[in-house]
Amino acid sequence: MARIVAGIATSHVPAVGHAVDSGRTEDDYWRPMFQGYEFSKQWIKDNPADVDIIVYNDHASYFGMDIMPTFGIGTAGKYEICDEGYGPRPVPVVMGHPELSTHLAASLILDDFDMTVLNRLDVDHGLTVPMSLMYGQPDAWPTRVIPFPVNVVMYPQPSGERCLAIGKAIRDAVQNFDEDINVRVWGTGGMSHQIQGARAGLINLPWDLQFMNDLIDQPEVLQHKPHLEYMIEAGSEGVELIMWLIMRGALGDDVNEVYRFNHVPASNTSVGHLILTPKD
Amino acid sequence: MKPNFEQFTDIPGTTIFTMEMAQKGFQLNEFCMSLRTQENRDRFHADERKYLDEWDMSEDQKQAVLTRDFQKMLDGGGNVYFLSKIFAAEGMSYVQAVSTMTDMNVDEYQAMMVAGGRDIEGWRSKKERGEA
Ligand SMILES: [Fe+2]
């Protein structure tokens, strides 16, 4: 039986990817942020897993407005890296786990989550920047990955309730997979940031810290937070944080907080990061 | 549930990319998506007007692109992740591009970010600011 062994939450700022790719992580501007991930890089080496299910959003990199899936799941054997306007990031190709993907996609659909099944998918900074933060710059990524893209770009995004619920369904599906493997679920994006309009640059750190506390202690309450509140309090792009609820739902009722880190700013963004493990 | 696309209009200095805005900006955003290949970026940069005329965009949308007026692109249904293809192709960062939509120059904007970002006090509601 497969099991979910940990949840990881992290921002996925594109400029962080540039800093890694251009060797600037030791610059004065970047050093304090990357130092906050040193614990995590060691932790993930000490606590290996087989598969990472990475909940992220595409940023008009693979999906345009032709097709905009609310919840998608990659079922491919590998995923190439998107050209986001300046050529693809120089990171290894992302290898998939088609067997678990197929099992997950089918389970979720049978549980009434109408997934978009993605046999072809290129992945952007939303997925690769978290991997760079946790794994550094290996020649090949150490785990198999299941990309789980969510529409957070176009309103209406899925509700917080729906995100928490699909996370719980992911947990059930993983536990019903007949292979003895360890799986992590990642929730990426956020925290507060706004990258458009006269209000651009908005950061709301007290709100971010409260969000982290509620995510850990009372996700059943947090799930009811309306999109409008995210957009007012955490900025128009802060609504990405609903993806953290999917990760949290996959961890069961109670969690241990292994690690927490916050840093302002990376580019326009309040960086937040959590490592959680299920209690049971 | 009846959708409420108007609920966001009281947020100051903010254009929420609703499904309605996505309709309005479809061709503009499609143009942006086309810039994901070097070949198209080169063609666009060689003759911007000619390249834009290949798209069924409004003249307002085209002018917004030609003048790099990102706020006007948002008003025309553009979304910043799509628009990023325009500025990324010119080697511009999000901080540089985003600052042009504010009342600050890029140095002032960067200084605000390094000092902790824009404080939300006074930025929650147009009504509160007397803008509504
Ligand atoms: Fe994002």
Brief write-up:
The complex is a heterodimer of chains A (280) and B (132). Chain A has helices at 14-21, 31-35, 38-46, 98-110, 125-135, 160-175, 205-217, 219-222, 227-233, 242-249, and strands at 3-10, 51-56, 72-74, 78-79, 94-95, 116-118, 144-149, 182-188, 255-266, 269-278. Chain A is an alpha/beta fold.
Order of helices and strands of chain A: EHHHEEEEHEHEHEHHHHEE
Estimate the helix proportion of chain A, in percent. 25-40%
Q: For the record, give the distance between the C-alpha atoms at the N and C termini of chain A, rounded to a whole number.
A: 15 Å
As residue ranges, the low-confidence spans of chain B are none
The bound ligands are: fe (ii) ion
Helix vs. strand class of chain A: alpha/beta
CATH architecture of the largest domain in chain B: Orthogonal Bundle
Strand tally of chain B is 0
Q: Identify the CATH homologous superfamily of chain A.
A: LigB-like
Chain-averaged pLDDT of chain B: 97
* Contiguous helical run count of chain A: 10
Radius of gyration of chain B: 16 Å
Describe the secondary-structure layout.
The complex is a heterodimer of chains A (280) and B (132).
Chain A: E1 3-10, H1 14-21, H2 31-35, H3 38-46, E2 51-56, E3 72-74, E4 78-79, E5 94-95, H4 98-110, E6 116-118, H5 125-135, E7 144-149, H6 160-175, E8 182-188, H7 205-217, H8 219-222, H9 227-233, H10 242-249, E9 255-266, E10 269-278
Parallel strand pairs in A: 1-8, 2-7, 2-8, 3-6
Antiparallel strand pairs in A: 1-10, 4-5, 9-10
Chain B: H1 19-24, H2 26-34, H3 38-46, H4 48-52, H5 59-66, H6 70-75, H7 80-88, H8 94-99, H9 106-114, H10 126-129
Helix pairs in contact in B: 2-7
